[in-house]
Each structure stands twice: as structure tokens, then as C-alpha cells.
């Protein structure tokens, strides 16, 4: 399966289509950190929120780069389960690279500061919380991007609609006082947690929520793939 | 491998493309899938290969290693021939050294050596088709599924395809092949599956059945249509040749003699002649009548 992951990542990079989401991510982060300095945990929480649609889009592009017939050839060669898994894994690897860039970016542009007041979190704690917030976003974004991919929805228009609804829904349903917060991955809740009181139990609950949401969406993706043939 | 009561449609409310297909192919057997355009030949092949999942029914005892040559190779990929085939060999489970060895062997055998560093989108259709053939053979398949494998290939490679099929069969593999060019005449021992109206029937021939060769002359412009129709009706077109003399071309020599309706001196000049075999005299008559009708 790792050979198929490498082949798909190579296809993604060699077409140059990897540049579009990377540039979009950099522009978004540049805008985010251009307004002033913030402490790491708070900054990273917001960074994770804005990266969610970027990573989902990146996943869709990665999965859509491969021609349909080539995807079927891979399926014949390695089987259905490994073909699906290899696509998701390749998207996750690409997402982790983008996350690494997002974590480094504020230090390169001076967008973060160390603790100012006595009650502020230390830089290592802020980094750990930021890493957690970004890792929380990766499975959810990969799942949404996969659901929006051509192999899942067929036409390009439907894919864009799924991405847009997923991106907007994650913010709208994630607002404080939302009537149906479980409809969205907990990226907004994670941002609030990194900025406020980050109790271990809260982090654990949000992690479980994110994984459950991602698993449900991946289930939808696999069901769509099964229906699409 | 067996297809048990296989039904398939592409959309929930769409028409069934395959309806209750029940067929088996054993080790060392090759079957040619025949039928008109759009009847579901490629669909059947893709179900057999494991690309498509039946809506009803199931496929059992599919060999672990399947080689599938799609009708059109997906050349829109950012790889050179070597990089693509090496990648596919690794995906198929070969180690680095074995993958390199397999790629070298198959690129040489299929005449791709000169194209190894060429990017896939820059290949001609025929050369890309060779890459499609190579990727299916990098590891010896237990089931080889060839969807119009002769399409776009040069003469040398066309001759090679039956040889490759024979090698798979010799290793106790099975082969399924579709063809509308009449190249399957190169596979005389093959079973013949006819797909029509979503169902599959197998043409059977007994050893004591007499085979007749019927020569038919048709206007050159109508050769392709006539050949396609004759094949779709189950006849085996042996060859198509240009007619040497216009005078001679106005006569359709037909065997057996009872097919008298074919010779029409008042008709316009006929440009091409071909031979076909028919396993039944009635079928031969019908085929010749059909060709003569085209010539009118």
C-alpha cells in the first residue's frame, strides 16, 4: 500500500496542482498573522480553523488528480480496501506537511510572542496545544475532502458544493450556542479551548468527537465509492 | 472463476446492463466476449476484473492476481514510462530490484525501450496502449482481462498478443478478451461468449460441424459497417482484401451454391472482397444476403 501512497503523492506534486492549496494556505496564514502578535496556543487555534477548508480542498485535489481509469487499475492491483486506504493516507501525509508549514509559519514572520503576564501559558505548552488543534483538523479535513472528491460525488459541481457546505458548516455549527454542534467537527470548540481553559478531559472529549465525526464522514465517502463503483 | 447470477446497473433507477449473468471460466481457458457496441462487453469484463461490483449476484474464485488492460489507457499522468511502470510494479508488490527487472523485460518485449524516458501524455495512442498492456503483465496474472487489446497496436505487437495470452494460459491462468476488429481469429481455441440484451450466451461448436467459407464483395466504403455487422451476428471474418479486377468484383462468389441472391451484375462496381465462415448454412445465407443488401 505504501507504494500506492507514494505514487499518488508523486502524481499530486508533479502535476503542480499542489501549489494552489499551498498558496491559499500561505495567504490565509499571512493574513492571519499580519495583524499582530499573539500567544502560540491562541494563534494556533485560529490557524487550525482557517486551515480546515484549505486541507479539505487539498485532499480533493490530490484525489482528483488521478484519472478514473488509473484509480480502477490500482483497485484491481491492490484490492478495494487498500485502494481506498492509500488515497486517504496520501491525503493525510500531504495534510501533515501543510500543518508543519502552518506551525512554522508564525515563527518565521514574527506572528507569535512568548508569555507576557504571569498567568500566560509557556511556549512549549502553547506549541503542544497548537499541535493538538491542527492534528484534530487533519482527519476531519481529509474526510471532508474525500467525500467531495470526484470518485465520491461524480461531477465537479457537487464536489465544490460539498466542500463549501462542509467549510461553512464547520464554522456556523461550531459557534457557541449552536443548536446542532455535533453536525460539525469541533474545530471551533478546539480554538476556544486553546484560547481558554484547556482541561485534559475537554481535550480528550474534543479529540473523540473529531475522530467520530471524521469516521462518520469517511463512512459516507466509502458508501459513495461503493455506490459509484 | 465464476460469475453467479450477476446483475449490474450504473444508477439506482437506471436500466440493468447485465441481467443474471451466470458463467464460469477455468484455469487455462480463454473466452472472447462478443456483441454489438453498448451491450455491456466492457461492463462484463470490469465485473470479472473486480473494477465494478455487481448490484446483485457475486463473483467467486477470482484469482488473487488480476491483470486488466482497459480499453483506453489513462495517459494523462505526470510520469515517464519507466517511472509509471516501476510504480505499478511496486504497487503490485514487487521489490525494487524485481520491479526494475520486470520493467526492463516488458519494455523490451513490447518495443517500449525507446520510450522509457518519455512522459505518458506525449505517447501515441498505440504506444500508450502498450504501456497499458505492460502494467497488466508485470506480475504473471491468474486472470488477464483484455478490453480491445489490439486497438491502436502496431502489427508486430498485434502478433504478440496471442503469444502473451498463450503464456498466461500455459501458467494455468484464465483470459477474457473483447474485440471488435476480428483479431480474435488469432485465438482459435477460445470460447465465444455473446453478450446481447444484458444476457450472455455461449456459442458452442462441435467438431463434426461443417465450416463453410463464404466470399463476399462489397463497396469499399461499406466494408467497415458490413464487417462489423457480420461479426456482431456471430460470423468469423477471416480477412478483408482489395478486389483486383472491377469486372470480377461485380460477382459475389458464394459457397454453398444455394445462396444465389448475391450475384447482381447490374449493381455498381464493388471494391472490396472478404471471407467469412459460418457454422450453419442458414447463417451463411443470412450473412451473405445481409452483405448484398449493403451493396445495393
From TrEMBL, chain A:
Keyword terms of this UniProt record: Membrane, Transmembrane, Transmembrane helix
Organism domain of life: Bacteria
Protein name: ABC transporter permease
Keyword presence, Transmembrane helix: yes
Transmembrane segments: 44-65, 86-109, 129-148, 160-183, 203-223
Keyword Transmembrane helix among record annotations: yes
Automatic annotation (TrEMBL), chain B:
Region feature Disordered, mapped onto this chain: 242-296
Assigned keywords, A-Z: ATP-binding, Nucleotide-binding, Transport
Domain ABC transporter: 1-223
Molecular-function GO term, any one: ATP hydrolysis activity
Database matches in InterPro entries: AAA+_ATPase, ABC_transporter-like_ATP-bd, ABC_Transporter_VariousFunc, P-loop_NTPase
Low complexity composition-biased segments: 283-296
Presence of the UniProt keyword Cell inner membrane in the record: no
Pfam families for the chain: ABC_tran (PF00005)
PROSITE patterns: ABC_TRANSPORTER_2
SMART domains according to UniProt: AAA
PANTHER family found in the cross-reference section: ABC TRANSPORTER ATP-BINDING PROTEIN ALBC-RELATED
Protein known as: ABC transporter ATP-binding protein
Organism whose genome encodes this protein: Micromonospora arida
